[in-house]
Design brief:
heterodimer, A: 754 residues, alpha+beta, Aldehyde Oxidoreductase, domain 4, 3 domains, 7-stranded mixed beta sheet, 5-stranded mixed beta sheet, 17 helices, 25 strands, 25% helix, B: alpha+beta, 11 helices, disordered C terminus
């Protein structure tokens, strides 16, 4: 029986359910010290004095690490624009000024003490003087005439430091020829990752003398590189291990404790102290201290014929990158490719900007710019349908990208475009052609009893495409190693294997998927394969757990490694070793004028969703009765895990769309607690989510696999807004759709009691 | 900090008198978070749960007597109480979560004096009285006289609430409580509305209406009461009550709701709670309006 398509039980499930799993915060090696990371609490200020003497003299304190201790005081995933520690003195080997705090959660010092309480108390004794710098609170402030620069050292010499352009065809003529123009300005909110496990880690010097950090991240080898760069060490001198990870969703793609924990161990080492160090953030520190899904604003105009065929798209988009780039330039790219929708657009002028401010950095979060672009494109498409009295599914049929279609960057999409099939399947499962449902009473969702008088019901539809794997020429690769064991007999088949991969299991079940693919590739049972995962000392670089890429990329690496091992086996090697580094077809950067045809991605995933909801027009409460999510996953490795990803993404999208309202004012997160930042509870989520999986093989995917974990998050918010229009006749151009916001917009439109 | 667990009211008063600054508590669902947040709670805490009278619920001929320390879960499980005072019980059943309700008490909810306390508008609408003990004996006041501002009550030093007395509804009388939060559970009221009314042949003959979370303390709304008394609860009367409730609000603007939203919702909830209470008054024994 094939190992694929089986809902095999997760090897880690029992430990996680019983509490036996030891997450980074559960690790207390003997003699361990605590490292407390002190935030500057300064959204924009220059430090003129730092005195740690009193803290160092405090009871239980072993050492205090400051900027002066950082060999190369800079880091960043795609550009080194952030100091590791802010301080008046530094080694000087950094491209970014080290004496300016640009974010309330910039790191000032690391206090290492015998206990957490001692470290926290001593931190209060650190003295610092600051010279205030003008605050750049948000996009409007950043773009204002004469706005102060958040990064005066950046060559762009503008807060709008990263600009992407697509110029396609003749957009001016397209608008002249248009029968209908749909124009909108959309405000897009932040989202907090809200993973169960706040940032935590433990660091020590291992038996081979390597500075070793056990932490929850998304890319072991990138963490290793960032640590080695800041500490000015060879890669081999640094080791990164991922224990069980309590969720990530993109929020662990950038550094949190990684570098500072390594610095702490190094400082202790210099003093001849050989003791491990642990650290853990509180929930408040986690919410304040790591990046968010970008807030932003998009202004756009769509031109179409009276039959609903798109003629042209104009869009100007701004994302609030916050105080440091993180992955904003890449997230922007994804917004750029999705803002005109998964449609054939003959003429386009798209301008997208990442903007530095003194707010919390924007960065990776499931969908990576796609949810923002998709909200705009799908709301525009639904508005186009409404304006022409066309069905939302029908208007998509007339525009959707298909096999051989030319994409927004003027090149054909990679083979295997299945969005037309996905849209049809979604419409069928949702019984889209059926007559509207009767109004439903809103029940316990609103903590209010049902009332039919104020209830309105509606349905909405949206679809999306999203890249699989790294885009825009970023070097994409994945390494796997397989070792086959068995009898020396020349005719024997292997009886067991070892599999080495670094890919992170962030809770999505990646490691079981790796084992199932390796079993399929080697012909062995899953139980016969011994895993060696997520340790830079034993695995090659598998790339990050992001961009819906892990199954796709590692699957191809596993297939290559299995083939190599099989060759060695046939040559009589015992054990037989196979090493393989898979590289997908190359991708390209956009050129600065945006006219040259480019291929930014090597693969895409396709999804469509239909939702059915009721809204209480007097209170603004929304209850979602039914969600149909149809997605082409290419080939199902583990059905239960695919279902988990679909349902999880829909629920995460539900929070993004309806309740999660992060308030950031003057560079400070105002609600860093779950009592004020409302993620959905069990009573708040959709009453039903129906996962519909298509298996149209990706020609380049391993076994036909497509990436799928981000896509179901994307169409949800615009489908909800479409359904709200269906229910009330009112469009929403911003969210989250909290009851006060819904009520205010309905009131302004004269819907519901005044 | 010291922990006291007196077995009698007199013993509790003795500690309060001899150890100035000590505080009483019941379920500790507010006290524990206050401790965790580093607030100074004084030299000692007095656990009132061991005092029998504070943990008793009794039905007398004309009234219910509910001990100040009785956990909410005991109230929601009491079918007789739910039959007589469904609004009070549904308010108790909205405090915190199921876990919190196994500890949280009406006494604590009232004396913590949060403007958003769920039980207060329901108790006020039901005309509840608080029996207060001190070294001078006991005195009885209306519940609406207890909170005087956020976190402040009219209790004098050395006093604590022993129990609540609530008249059993006579004739076609019933109460209801509605609370709006952004989510389904585990949140603090944006607005709460408690209503008790009496119907006679389709006409409302008396009403008490109280709102929570729309001002520093619970708000009685006499204008809304006047708007429905003597009417058949027709649309015009309901609209007038709704408008009066909105006008009586003096709310804050925060992340849970704007001033305009709270004012509006106060009117909506008042209208709906009147409808539920009237249904219950005219159709006794039905479960109409249950929130769960």
């Amino acid at each position: 029986m094939s190992a694929l398509g089986q809902s095999l039980p997760r090897p880690d499930a029992r430990d996680k359910v019983t509490g036996d799993a030891r997450y980074p915060g559960d690790r207390f090696p003997p003699d361990v010290l605590f490292a407390f990371i002190v935030f500057t609490d300064q959204p924009h200020a220059r430090i003129t004095r730092l005195d740690t003497a009193a803290a160092e003299a405090a009871e239980g304190v072993v050492a205090v690490v400051t900027a002066a201790d950082v060999p190369v005081n800079e880091y960043g995933l795609t550009m080194f624009d952030q100091p590791v520690l802010i301080g008046p003195t530094s080694s000087g080997r950094s491209a970014v000024p080290h004496d300016v705090s640009r974010w309330e959660a910039d790191h000032l010092a690391v206090v290492i003490a015998e206990t957490e309480e001692q470290a926290r108390s001593a931190a209060a004794l650190i003295e610092s003087d600051w010279e205030a710098l003008p605050l750049v609170a948000d996009i409007d402030a950043a773009l204002a005439d004469g706005a102060p620069l958040v990064h005066p050292e950046h060559p762009a010499q503008s807060n709008a430091y990263h600009h992407l352009v697509i110029t396609k065809g003749d957009v001016a003529t397209a608008f002249e020829r248009a029968d209908v123009v749909i124009e909108g300005t959309y405000e897009l909110p932040y989202q907090e990752h809200a993973y169960l496990q706040p940032e935590a880690g433990v660091a020590y010097v291992d038996e081979e003398g390597r500075i070793t950090v056990e932490v929850a991240g998304q890319w072991t080898h990138e963490d290793q590189e960032q640590i080695a760069h800041a500490l000015d060490l060879d890669l081999d001198a640094v080791r990164v291990i991922y224990p069980p990870i309590g969720g990530a969703f993109g929020g662990r793609e950038d550094m949190s404790l990684q570098i500072v924990l390594a610095l702490a161990v190094r400082k202790l080492n210099e003093r001849g102290i050989d003791r491990p160090v642990r650290s853990q953030w509180s929930r408040e520190e986690s919410i304040v201290g790591h990046h968010k899904r970008h807030r932003g604003r998009v202004h756009t105009r769509w031109a179409a014929t009276k039959d609903g065929v798109l003629l042209g798209v104009e869009a100007t988009s701004h994302l609030d990158a916050g105080s440091y780039n993180y992955t904003s330039n890449k997230v922007l790219g994804n917004l750029h490719l999705t803002v005109a929708g998964p449609y054939e657009v003959p003429n386009a002028q798209l301008d997208s900007y990442a903007v530095y401010t003194n707010a919390v950095p924007g960065g990776a979060f499931r969908g990576f710019g796609g949810p923002q672009g998709c909200f705009v494109s799908e709301t525009q498409m639904n508005r186009l349908a409404a304006a022409l009295h066309l069905d939302p599914v029908e208007v998509r049929r007339r525009n959707v990208l298909g096999e051989g279609s030319i994409g927004i960057t003027s090149t054909p999409l990679p083979a295997g475009v299945s969005l037309p099939e996905v849209i049809e399947e979604c419409a069928i499962e949702a019984d889209w052609e059926a007559p509207p449902r009767p109004p439903a009473a809103i029940g316990a969702f609103a903590s209010l009893p049902p009332t039919t008088e104020a209830s309105r019901r509606g349905r909405g539809f949206a679809c999306a495409y999203k890249n699989i794997g790294f885009s825009f020429g970023f070097p994409e690769r994945s390494v796997a190693d397989i070792v086959l064991h068995g009898s020396d007999d020349a005719d024997a088949r292997p009886t067991s294997a070892e599999l080495y991969l670094a890919g992170a299991d962030v809770g999505q079940g990646a490691h079981l998927a790796f084992l199932q693919m390796a079993a399929e590739a080697t012909g062995l049972d899953v139980e016969a394969i011994t895993p060696g995962f997520s340790d830079t000392a034993t695995s090659g670089d598998s790339g990050s757990a992001s961009a819906s890429r892990l199954s796709w990329m590692t699957g191809n690496a596993i297939l290559g490694a299995a083939e190599e091992a099989e060759k060695a086996w046939r040559d009589g090697d015992r054990p037989a070793r196979g090493h393989f580094r898979y590289t997908p077809p190359p991708t390209e950067m956009l050129d600065p004028d945006g006219r040259t045809p480019t291929t930014p991605n090597f693969a895409y995933g396709y999804v469509a969703e239909a939702v059915d909801l009721s809204v209480d027009v007097e209170t603004g409460h929304i209850v979602v009765h039914d969600v149909v999510c149809a997605i082409d996953v290419g080939r199902i490795i583990n059905p239960q895990q695919v279902t988990g990803q679909i349902e999880g993404a829909v629920i995460q999208a539900h929070g993004y769309c309806l309740s999660e309202n992060l308030v950031v004012i003057d560079g400070r997160v105002m609600n860093p607690r779950f009592s004020g930042y409302l993620i959905p509870g069990i009573g708040d989520i959709p009453e039903q989510v129906r996962s519909v999986m298509l298996e149209i093989p990706d020609p380049r995917g391993p076994f036909g696999v497509r990436g799928m974990a981000e896509m179901p998050l994307m169409p949800y918010a615009p489908a909800i807004v479409g359904a709200l229009y269906d229910a009330t006749g009112v469009w929403f151009d911003s969210f989250p759709l909290t009851p006060p916001r819904v009520r205010a917009v309905l009131r302004a439109a004269g819907v519901g009691a005044s | 900090m010291k922990y006291y667990a007196p077995a009698t009211i007199e013993e509790a008063i003795g500690v309060l008198t001899s150890e100035p600054g000590t505080r009483v508590f019941a379920g500790a669902t507010d006290v524990v978070p206050q401790m965790r947040s580093g607030r100074d709670l004084g030299p000692g805490l007095i656990d009132l749960k061991k005092i029998e009278r504070l943990s008793a619920v009794t039905r007398q001929d004309d009234m219910w007597v509910i001990g100040a320390a009785v956990p909410a879960a005991q109230l929601t499980a009491n079918a007789d109480l739910s039959h007589d005072l469904p609004g009070v019980v549904e308010a108790a059943g909205l405090i915190g979560s199921d876990q919190v309700q196994s500890r949280s008490s009406l006494g604590g909810n009232v004396c913590n004096a949060s403007p958003a306390a769920d039980s207060v508008p329901a108790l006020v609408a039901a005309g509840a009285r608080a029996v207060i003990a001190s070294g001078d004996g006991t005195r009885t006041i209306l519940v609406e006289e207890l909170p005087v501002g956020p976190g402040r009550t009219s209790l004098a030093p050395g006093e604590f609430v022993v129990e609540f007395e609530i008249d059993r509804p006579a004739g076609a009388t019933a109460d209801a409580y509605l609370r709006l939060i952004p989510r389904t559970e585990m949140d603090i009221a944006v607005v709460g509305a408690g209503v008790q009314l009496t119907m006679d042949g389709g006409t409302c003959t008396s009403a008490r209406i109280a709102l929570g979370a729309v001002a520093p303390t619970v708000v009685r709304v006499p204008d809304a009461e006047a708007a429905i008394v003597g009417t058949t609860l027709d649309d015009a009367a309901l609209a007038a009550a709704s408008a009066a409730a909105s006008a009586a609000c003096n709310p804050i603007d925060d992340k849970r709701g704007t001033i305009a939203y709270r004012q509006h919702v106060a009117g909506v909830l008042t209208k709906r709670a009147i409808g539920i209470a009237a249904d219950r008054a005219q159709n006794p024994g039905t479960a109409n309006g249950s929130t769960h």
